[in-house]
Amino acid sequence: MREHWRRVYRQDPALFDRFVVAEDWGGQVSKHLQTLLPIHGRFVIELGCGTGHYTRALAGGAGRYIATEP
What's the average pLDDT block by block, 10 residues per block, for the chain (70 residues)? Predict the structure, then answer.
């Protein structure tokens, strides 16, 4: 299963992103992450950001935000 999603991510990132968005129905995961991670005004590095769904949800409050995919 893991290899399947790696292949989807490489070959069709838009499809992968739709899956991530569906997984975060109503933005509930993003909202919860914002309450758990005190990043307001901080320098944040996100490793393994995928298509950036959570990056878009979190980066606005950070002082500086770098997201990268291995």
Answer: 82 85 82 83 91 85 91
Cα distance between residue 37 and residue 42, in whole Å: 11
Tell me which DSSP letter residue 48 carries.
S
Query: 63: how many CB neighbours lie within 10 A of its CB?
Result: 10
Beta bridge partners of 66: 45
Q: Model-level pTM greater than 0.70?
A: no
Backbone CA torsion sign across 5, 33, 21, 48: negative
CA separation for the pair 52, 9 (Å, rounded)? 12
Secondary structure element (H or E) that encloses residue 21, with its range: helix 13-23
Structure tokens at 52: 């950036």
